[in-house]
Amino acid sequence: MSESNGEFTFDLTLIEVSVTLNGEQYTLREADGEAGAEYENARFKGAVIDEETGTVSTLPNIGDREATLVSLCLFDKDNNRVPEVTIRSWPARVVNPLAAKAREISGMEEGAEDVAALKRRLARANKRVKTAKNEPSATTGG
């Protein structure tokens, strides 16, 4: 992606990485929009949000997400997705690096935010701090 004069230019070619597992050739492909949405849904399935802070307080089935992402991005020599049940049979030392690479080439790395998003988060946090400073504290009896 490039940006000039407020205009975005994209190349829609999916990034692909060659993978060899036990002598068999596979392709780890960047998540498309559908795969990205499915992964994000799986990532937060059953999440419990703390109403006070607005943050995730419980994230069940967190271990499922690695195999899910790999199954959405890994294709065999016939261009078929490798089933999640197959990926779950592989050692974690194989699955975890594949998931990390899939996140990297798909722009879904944990905590990956652009500067503008970080500035918006900082502004919201500063506003909450300012509001909290102006409210009477329960511990001071005010």
If you had to describe this structure to a student in words, what would you say it looks like?
By secondary structure, the chain is an alpha+beta fold. The protein has a single domain, classed as 2-Layer Sandwich (rbstp2171), CATH 3.30.2220. It is built from five helices and seven strands. The strands form three sheets. It has a three-stranded antiparallel beta sheet. It has a two-stranded antiparallel ribbon with strand order 1-2. Helix 1 runs antiparallel to helix 2 (64-73) and helix 2 (64-73) packs across helix 4 (92-106). The mean pLDDT is 79.
User: What is the CATH-assigned architecture?
Assistant: 2-Layer Sandwich
Number of strands: 7
Largest sheet: 3 strands, antiparallel
**Proportion of residues in extended strands:** 15-25%
CATH topology: rbstp2171
Number of domains: 1
Overall mean confidence score, pLDDT: 79
Radius of gyration: 21 Å
Secondary structure elements and pairings:
Blueprint: E1 2-4, E2 7-9, E3 16-21, E4 24-29, H1 33-44, E5 48-49, E6 56-58, H2 64-73, E7 74-75, H3 84-88, H4 92-106, H5 115-134
Antiparallel strand pairs: 1-2, 3-4, 4-7, 5-6
Helix pairs in contact: 1-2, 2-4
Task: Give descriptors for this structure.
single chain; flat; alpha+beta; 142 residues; 5 helices; rbstp2171; two-stranded antiparallel sheet; 18% strand
What can be said about this structure in brief?
With 142 residues, the protein is α+β, with helices and mostly antiparallel strands.
